[in-house]
Amino acid sequence: MKKTLEFRAHDGEIEDIALGPDNKVVTAGRDFQCCVWQQDQLVTGLRWHENLPGIPDKAYRYQACRDSGTFLGLGTVTGSVAIHIAFSLQRLYYVKEAHGIVVTDVAFVPESQPGRELLGGHEAALLSVAVDSRCKLHLLPTRRSLPVWLLLLLCAGLIVATILLLQLAFPGFL
């Protein structure tokens, strides 16, 4: 094996590393950060004080990370578990102290036939393992979204309503 790239990702030790799609790498470090990298360039990152205000930086630390391509699963030293959208790091799911102590690993249920059966109607499933000798399954509910045709219909209705209101407010507008 040959080293192809070396860069400083964190201040201190790296707790976990995961390979994602499009040659992206996710790292969780002892510096209380979780970072998404493309080569040696920081794409985006998570910091406790920015994402969970009111919780002191030093009280929590990312311990484990996995990137399914669509989602990023995270576990912490305090037993919390979270699922974020991989490209924007928007938090979709969070359970404070899902485990009694350190989450040592997280893994998404694969999209195989048995995995799809386990998912049921959920968008994703994340397994978490902790020092408390427990393995927990976290199910991410399917996000609701409007069909495109309904969104276009609502926009058209809004435009018509705006024109009618302008006509009532300013007679002779049209």
UniProtKB/TrEMBL annotation:
| Pfam families linked | WD40
Question: Where mainly found?
Answer: endoplasmic reticulum
Q: Name one GO biological process term.
A: regulation of COPII vesicle coating
Q: Name one GO cellular component term.
A: endoplasmic reticulum membrane
The molecular function terms of the Gene Ontology recorded here are:
guanyl-nucleotide exchange factor activity
- Name where it's found: Endoplasmic reticulum membrane
Source species, domain of life: Eukaryota
> Which spans are transmembrane here?
146-170
Q: Which UniProt keywords apply?
A: Endoplasmic reticulum, ER-Golgi transport, Membrane, Protein transport, Repeat, Transmembrane, Transmembrane helix, Transport, WD repeat
Membrane topology, record value: Single-pass membrane protein
Question: Which InterPro entries does the entry link to?
Answer: Sec12-like (IPR045260), WD40/YVTN_repeat-like_dom_sf (IPR015943), WD40_repeat_dom_sf (IPR036322), WD40_rpt (IPR001680)
State the name under which the record lists this protein.
PREB protein
Taxonomically, what lineage is the organism?
Eukaryota, Metazoa, Chordata, Craniata, Vertebrata
